[in-house]
Every structure is written in C-alpha cells, then in structure tokens.
C-alpha cells in the first residue's frame, strides 16, 4: 500500500528547479526613496545586469558561463532599468540595452541560461526578465492612454497625464500545474507542440474569481474530462515568459475515463509509478520534463512516495 500523497510529508520539493532561490534582499524601502536610488545607481560598487531583447547578457570569461555584472561606468546606452536589490552592501540593477546599443557580452535566451547556470542565479534572471518585459509593454496608461513613467525602482509605472496619475504594477499571472493521481498511476498529457514522446503534467491559467483548487478541477475537467477531488499545494515556481507563477499541486482523480480537448492537448493518458520512475531516469517509456521545470519535481515527489 503506497503512501497517501495528500497527507504524506513532502520536504524540499523543487528546491533545485529553475528560476527559484533569488539571493537578493529586494529592499522595498529603497524603492520608495528616489534620492537614495539615484545615488545607488551611480555608486562605485553598484552592479548592472544587461538584457538584450529580454536575453540576459552573459560572461564567458575563461570558458565559464556566468551573469555579466557591469559597474555603472561601463554601461552602454540603456532604456528601462529596475532595482533588483542588495547582495551584501552592493546594490544590483538590471537594464535593457537601447536598440542597436553596444553589447559587452553574449546574450543567451533566459531558459537556456537558466539550464546552463543550474542554480539560484536563474532566480535573478526571472526577476530581471519579468520586470523588463513588463516595462517594454506598458508604456501607456490603461486608464487614459497617456504615456507612463517608471517609479519606485521599476516596481510601478505612473501615468503622466494631469488629472489621471493612475499607478500600474508589474503582473504576476498564476498558472496551476497539477499531477492528477489515481492510486499507482498519474495523468500526463502532451500538447501538439511538444517534442515527440514528451509528456507533462496538465496546466492552465487561473481565471478571475477562481480559487487554486477550483482552477485545478476546471482545467483537468476541460482538458482531459477527468473529475478531481482533493487538491494539495506542493510547490511554486516563477516562470518569466513573461510573468507566470507556476503553482504545483497534486489532484486526486475521482474518475478515470479520459476525454481529450483537442484544442488543448494531442493526447492524455495514465502512466504507472514504475513508468514514471523509469522516465525520470531517462529510460522511457516517455520523455519526462527536465529538472528546470516544476513538472519534473511534481512527478519525482509523487513517484518517490511509492
Ligand atoms: Zn492615465
């Protein structure tokens, strides 16, 4: 008899997945102090991470890949910038390089960079990429259409129109991602765009006016026609494409017949615990999500309970 995944202790699930573990003290009180921020921006020990088309600029010095941190005197022309926080006493910032501007290192797509770095530096990429992506697409007020300006270290944009002045805040879009289990097997699906043989946990955006539990039950019913009872929160992960928060859950299957919504999924099917353990070892019968993704850690946490 296997352990009940809805009551069993779960420790440290996903502690080593991508985009978590950001080391900065985000220092909210500094964001509200424009004069101090202006000093910190020019401070000799301040460090800047650049993004080009939302790709972090990397250092490859000595053949070692790392985030490239520049002192303020070495910055090329930039557009949007944000205050990331402090590491020790050193203020850290991120900025977008102006179009056509000089790029002092190697831009790498954020997902690839996170995989290659393989540690909490990917959490810095998540913070920088989500914020700068939001700035790039929120130059105008959603209330009156006038231009907005960044304030509070890049954590707010304020409308510049006299008589409006509306404040707008960065988005975080909740997505439920759930491993639905039925005793010794779990429900996985594949989208048409997935590589051949790749299966993952079902996922979908939380809708307005919906709890996480309700979102899990609705998404699984819509995508696979399976009814879900108990829902357990397991772990969460920032996913900066552009601003999702993946909320990982287990869901308990109350029915087992599958009816796939062809708009969302190509196929959904049940896999046994033994098959999941084999896939996580890279030995088939399907390709499991890689360790950068929270789906990998949901599968692992459940499979290892057996
Ligand atoms: Zn406005």
Secondary structure elements and pairings:
Elements lengths: L27 H4 L2 H9 L4 E6 L2 E5 L6 E2 L1 E2 L7 E10 L2 E8 L8 E2 L2 H8 L3 H17 L10 E4 L4 E4 L7 E2 L4 E10 L2 E6 L11 E4 L6 H13 L3 E12 L4 E10 L13 E6 H8 L13 H10 L3
Parallel strand pairs: 1-6, 11-15
Antiparallel strand pairs: 1-2, 1-4, 2-3, 2-7, 5-6, 8-9, 9-10, 11-12, 11-13, 12-16, 14-15
Helix pairs in contact: 3-4, 6-7
Bound molecules: zinc ion (ZN).
Structure description:
With 306 residues, the chain is of the alpha+beta class. It folds into 3 domains: 28-137, Nucleoside Triphosphate Pyrophosphohydrolase (Alpha-Beta Complex); 138-170; 173-303, Nucleoside Triphosphate Pyrophosphohydrolase (Alpha-Beta Complex). Helices cover 23% and strands 30% of the residues. It is built from 7 helices and 16 strands. It has helices at residues 28-31, 34-42, 110-117, 121-137, 212-224, 273-280, 294-303, and strands at 47-52, 55-59, 66-67, 69-70, 78-87, 90-97, 106-107, 148-151, 156-159, 167-168, 173-182, 185-190, 202-205, 228-239, 244-253, 267-272. The strands form 3 sheets. Strands 1, 2, 3, 4, 5, 6 and 7 form a 7-stranded mixed sheet that branches. Strands 11, 12, 13, 14, 15 and 16 form a 6-stranded mixed sheet that branches. α3 (110-117) packs antiparallel against α4 and α6 (273-280) packs across α7 (294-303). It is globular, with a radius of gyration of 22 Å. The mean pLDDT is 96. Zinc ion is lined by residues 141, 143-144, 146, 159, 161, 164, 166.
